[in-house]
Structure formats: C-alpha cells, structure tokens
C-alpha cells in the first residue's frame, strides 16, 4: 500500500492551497499564490539561497538530498506531528527553543518517492541558543511570533552524508495537553504505508476529550499510546513528577467507540 500524507501548507499563511506554487529557485518553498510568495520573500531569500545550493550539489549526495526533500514534502504532515510530540510541545512549549529532532533515514533507491526512505532511528538533541543561529532563522521565528505563534519546531533528516533541515511552524499554544508516546511508531507506520495519515485524525477528537475530562489543572498533561485499535495512557503532572493516574479502561473503550461512530458518520465530530 502506498504511504499517504497530508497536503502541504503555504509557507506564509499556513493554509492548505488549492493550487501549489513553488519557489522557482529552490523548488522547496510552497505558497498558495504569488501574493504570499512575494510577501514571504524577505524571510525566505537567505534560506532560498542555501536550499538552491543544496539542490545544485553534484553527484550522489546531491541526488540524495533532492530525494530526501521530496520525501519530506510528501510526508510533511506526519513529520510535523512527530516533531511536535517528540519535543513534547503541547506540555512543554519552550522546548522548541532548546531541542530538535534528528531522524536518521534508510535509503531505498528503487522505491517510489513516497517510499524511498524509511526512518531508521530518532534522537532528541540540544539546539544552540537562538541568538547564535543564522539571521534568516531568527527572522523566520520573529515573523511567526509577530503572527501570535511560538516559533519553529526543528527536525534534521540525515541519510549518510546528506542532511536536510525541516521546520514545523508552531502558530500558537495548544488547546490540548496530550502527548503521543508512540510518535515514532506512528511516523514509521504512516511513511511506510501501514497506516494512512487520515487515520491519525482520530487524535483531533481524542485529545480534546482527554483534556476536558482529566486535565482540570494547568500542570496536568496526558501521555498516551495510540493505534487504530484504541488508546491507553495516563495523566501526569509537571508540578509533581511522582503523580501518575492511569486513564480508566472504561474511558478508553468509550472514546474508541465514539471515534468509530464519528468515522461512520453516525454522530458529528465534536468531542464531549
């Protein structure tokens, strides 16, 4: 089964465009139209030069970089999800400023673009302070903050000697505080075609339900494992590392039943 992922977002307004416009120079930046592309140019131009240089690298590494970038665009939705939950942004938003996710990829040269790489391993590593990063990175973060967002959650894709940067814009504080413990399994399952990315949308119904029912205090957050067959997890506390409250089996079963009813169209997609 071919892997499926979410449609890419415009790099300026973060909406999913009906028609995609790519930067003609770097072939990486995506926009919903010429207006967004023009407005974003001052922020993009330095990164564009770097991306274009990477794309012009000759030989095997250059080809590998191009393939990695295409794979990352195809799977951008689930990679962004993985970065967010690897860094635990919903519960600890400041981690986007201190850490990043590194994904080591395995190359499958004969496969189709969506299957050309698989995730071999993952690591959370420290980021240098923002003031030590390139000016274009600081400008991009400042632009997101000016729009009411938090910044950028970073990921580095590595395959042999090739490395491709990836950033997920965090456009505001999350209304839910539920972390995915098995984010790496989900990333592998979606990119390798065992799970459709649309199946993961269950989380948009599950997380608000957990937040409303169990996270009555700001310091509480949920930590769950998700699969198509159901959820399990517990409630934790930032204030008390020893606090652990398992999610009741009855809640997990009823939540899964509600998800099934929503997917069948029997009830509207509004968690209660």
Automatic annotation (TrEMBL):
Classification via PROSITE patterns: ZF_MYND_1 (PS01360), ZF_MYND_2 (PS50865)
InterPro entries given in the database record: Znf_MYND
Database matches in Pfam families: zf-MYND
Domain MYND-type: 10-48
Assigned keywords, A-Z: Metal-binding, Zinc, Zinc-finger
GO MF annotations in UniProt: zinc ion binding
Entry protein name: MYND-type domain-containing protein
């Amino acid at each position: 089964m071919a892997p499926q992922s979410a449609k890419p977002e415009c790099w300026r307004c973060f909406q999913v465009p009906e028609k995609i416009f790519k930067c003609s120079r770097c072939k990486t930046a995506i926009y919903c139209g010429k207006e967004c592309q023009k407005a974003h140019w001052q922020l993009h131009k330095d990164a564009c030069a770097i991306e274009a240089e990477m794309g012009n690298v000759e030989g095997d590494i250059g080809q590998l970089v191009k393939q990695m970038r295409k794979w990352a665009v195809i799977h951008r939705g689930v990679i962004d999800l993985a970065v967010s939950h690897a860094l635990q942004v919903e519960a600890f938003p400041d981690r986007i400023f201190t850490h990043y996710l590194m994904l080591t990829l395995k190359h499958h040269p004969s496969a189709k673009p969506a299957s050309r790489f698989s995730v071999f391993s993952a690591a959370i590593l420290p980021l240098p302070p923002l003031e030590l990063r390139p000016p274009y990175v600081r400008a991009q973060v400042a632009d997101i903050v000016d729009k009411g967002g938090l910044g950028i959650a970073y990921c580095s894709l590595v395959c042999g000697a090739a490395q491709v940067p990836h950033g997920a814009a965090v456009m505001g504080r999350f209304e839910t505080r539920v972390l995915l413990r098995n984010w790496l399994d989900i990333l592998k399952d979606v990119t390798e075609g065992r799970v459709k990315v649309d199946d993961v949308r269950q989380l948009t119904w599950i997380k608000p339900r957990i937040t409303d029912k169990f996270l009555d205090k700001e310091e509480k957050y949920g930590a769950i494992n998700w699969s198509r067959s159901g959820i399990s997890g517990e409630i934790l506390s930032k204030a008390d590392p020893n606090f652990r409250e398992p999610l009741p089996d009855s809640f997990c079963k009823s939540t899964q039943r509600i998800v099934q009813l929503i997917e069948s169209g029997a009830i509207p997609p509004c968690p209660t």
